[in-house]
Amino acid sequence: MNRIMIVEDEPRITAFLEKGLQSSGFVTTVVTSGKTAVSIALDNDFDLIILDLGLPDKDGLTVLRELRGQGMPIPIILLTARDDITDKVLGLEQGADDYITKPFRFEELLARVRARLRNAVASTAYSDLTLSFNNILMDLRTRRVQVGDRVVELSAREFTLAEIFLRHPDQVLSRQQLLDHVWGYDYDPGSNIVDVYVGYLRKKLGGTLIETVRGMGYRLNSSASQ
Ligand code: CA
Prior knowledge:
Strand order of the largest sheet: 2-1-3-4-5
Bound molecules: calcium ion
Largest sheet: 5 strands, parallel
Strand content: 15-25%
Structural class: alpha/beta
């Protein structure tokens, strides 16, 4: 589950963001002060920060600069009420990943949040080049997959789905998480596409490999018989 830190002092906006993000499956933490935002961000394990530029005690751009100065690698999306293009340009130059101008529709913000989280997953995905699990070997560079000595052909979607599982062995992944990572935010959440593709992977990689966790999702099962 992704954790999002919201740095904003206006209660109307924090309530709006929290309600929307929580109902979309995110865990949120609100910080209303720019002065404490940096230490709270460093002390916690957030996946993304939404940072308002107009804070009462410290300018949002300063907070941004300090976060990046401390090596904070996660995506940061700026909120700005200002029409001043200079702030947006400065923000992007100083390490923000995106910005959104108030007033905004929640869907617009959500799309950006999800896109940034997907990019963050994708950029770590290329940091190491092979993944292995039991007798399965995935080469992320050549996109070659082997089960034991046997080479298995996977489609692009199947490959991405298998990669997510191999990166999170024994962890339950919800259908929504898998949809978000593999198909993107614009997919119908009521669709059974995840179940269909898990079925394809079971056929190709081994039937007991991916376990159904009733009511929760799927898990790559390291105690599966091979
Ligand atoms: Ca504000």
